[in-house]
Structure formats: structure tokens, C-alpha cells
Amino acid sequence: MRLSQGAPGAKILAFGGYQPADIVTNDDLAKRIDTNDEWIQTRVGIKERRVAGPGESEIDLAVQAGGKALAASGLSHADIDLVIVATCTLEAQIPNASARVAHRLGIDAPGAFDVNAACAGFCYALSAAADAVRAGSAKHVLVVGTEKLSQWVDWDDRATAVIFADGAGAAVVGPSDTPRIGPVVWGSSGDKSEVISVANRQSFLHQEGQTVFRWATTTLHPVAKLACERAGVDPAELSAFVPHQANLRIIEAIARKLGADNAVIARDIVLAGNTSAASIPLALSRMVERGEVQPGGLALLLGFGAGLTYAGQVIEIP
Amino acid sequence: MAVTEQEILAGLGKIVNEITGIPATEVTPEKSFVDDLDIDSLSMVEIAVAAQDEFGVEIPDDQLKHLKTVKDVINFIQA
Lengths: 318, 79
Prior knowledge:
Chain B: Its main location: cytoplasm. The complex is a heterodimer. Chain A is an alpha/beta fold. Chain A is 33% helix and 25% strand. Chain B is built from four helices and no strands. The two termini of chain B are 13 Å apart. The model of chain B has no long low-confidence stretch (mean pLDDT 92).
């Protein structure tokens, strides 16, 4: 037996993002539930979010974001030999999303699997993609985070309706002579599985906000620091910190404790809401578009969510 | 040696000031966090976490919701 010849490192070639057209403002929500714009902005940090139309599936969102990332990468669909989709909100679990997304994008017979690590999903999928490139099991990987949370949220539950949204983000990963995707730091706390959960197929998403807030603001900054340490990067060298866009106050609390003093902090949640596995690549795609991050800059990604699960790694901006 | 009520009050005043910007002198035993100091539930979690670091007493979320006033928190820490 012998092993495949892999690459010395892996890198991100390009990002792509997609938000559905329909905007739901805080005032729109206040017409239906007991909440208001000021309350939502101070507690969660969201001004508006997008929701997919009735005929628009999480697959459609993924195809849009994946197509943009592929176009921006300069590669052709024939170059992609693995597609990984991170999602936790598929309308039906069979078949998986990745094979359908690949087919719709004209990618012929790639390896195709989904990752469910909820809001940490993109960082898990990115790590799997980088490892596949380094091991030689794939050359170019399309990684997509896509979520249609609107179909799992009870729009009369003000604990969740004000937070969650729909969207997709994607990255193309390929070989590199030097490491441009750092080692992942990942883990989970299954003892807290019930704090973000859907009880059964007839239930909506349930979240215990205070418990999640406490967990996120007390246990994740050491994970963020360790991801920097494993990559040999000082937090002061980061030009961007892109955590999962869960809640602006969680984002700011972790950023404060991380000490990334020179980094732009992603605040995409303000206009995108919490899009779970899509939030990190969606935020990155928009930061690149707006010129907030420069090619060659280092960004720390940190996903965390239901499971509870978490994962983070340092990447170089393409 | 147990910390005195005055020491806990001073510590809480400092914590509340750091998290919410409310002057520490406003933090007096009879004040309600929500009704008098206008502190929301997420800031209460941050205060509970900071108080745990300061005084070594964990205030779990299911207990936290019953602690309405500054005095309630002082009593919980002293108990």
C-alpha cells in the first residue's frame, strides 16, 4: 500500500456570499411579537436580517454562494474534486446537500459530504478541506456554509425570532507551498446539548440564551488564543477576527479577551442576523468585497454553537 | 476569613461600573438591578461571571434570576 502525494499546505483561494432578497427589519418583528428595535439592537446587535422566499431552499442559497466563490477563485468547475456543505437546517436530511449543490454548479462527480456542527460547521468543514488537500485526497475543495433557519424558527418566539436568519457563504480551498490555513482547535460540550436544540421533527428551534451567552463569553477566548498559538501567530498580528455572528455582545466580549488589538472585528450580524454555519464565510466575503481586509492579512475564525461545538483556526486572506 | 458586606458591595460597584458604565456609588444594597439600575439579563450574566472571579462563588443562571437586588447578590455570596 502507498499514500497519495499531498500538498505542503492549503490555502483559501476565494470567498463568496449570498443573502436572499427579503429584508425583515426589527420594526417588522415588533408588529408580530412583543419586542422593539432598541431592545433587539442592545441585546443582540441586529438591525435587520434576510429570509429566503418560500420557493428558495438552503440548496439554492448554497449554489449562489458557491458559484460566486468558484468564479472569484479563477478555477473552473472541472477543477473541484470535493464539495463539503456545512448546514444544520436542511428541510430533509436525505439526500445530503453537497451532492445536489455540486450537481447544480456543474461539478462532475466530486466527493460530496455534509458537516453538521451547527454554527461551528464552517470551521469544521474548512479544517476537513485543508486536511484533504494536504493528504492528497483532494486537490481543490468547495466549502459552503448554508442555512435556512427561518424554516426552523417559531416566528412568535421572541427568544429566537429576533436572532436567526438565512444566508450562505463559501470558500474555495486549494494547495499551497506554505501553510495558509492554520491548525484547527476544536471541541464540544455534549453535557449542554439541550441549550440549543430542536426536540423533534414537529418542533421549532429552542435556545436558552443566558446559558449560551455565559458559555460563549467564558469558555471561548482560550480556544481563540490556542488557535493563534498553534499557528504561531500572536493575536496582535491578526488583521481580522471573524467569529460566528451569534450576538454582537458575545463577539465583542470574546474580542476584548482575545487582545486582537490591531484586528478588524467582523460585525456582519448587524445586517445579516445569525446565519449559523453561513455566518463566517458570509462575513468574510463582504469584508473582502468592502476592502476591510487585505490579501495576505491573517484572520482568526471561530465557530461555536449547538452541540455544543466549537472550532477555530487562523487563515490567510486570499 | 469571610468577606464583609462592605467589601462585597465595593467589589460589586466596581464590577457593575466596568460592565455597564453605571457609577459604582449608584450600586447600593436596596437597588434592583433591573428596575433601578436598568441592567439587562445579559449584563447580569456578565456581572455574575465577574463576581465569581472576584469572590469565588458561582452564581448559576437558575439562581441568578431570583437575585433581584444588590442585597440579594451580597447575601448569596455570603451564604
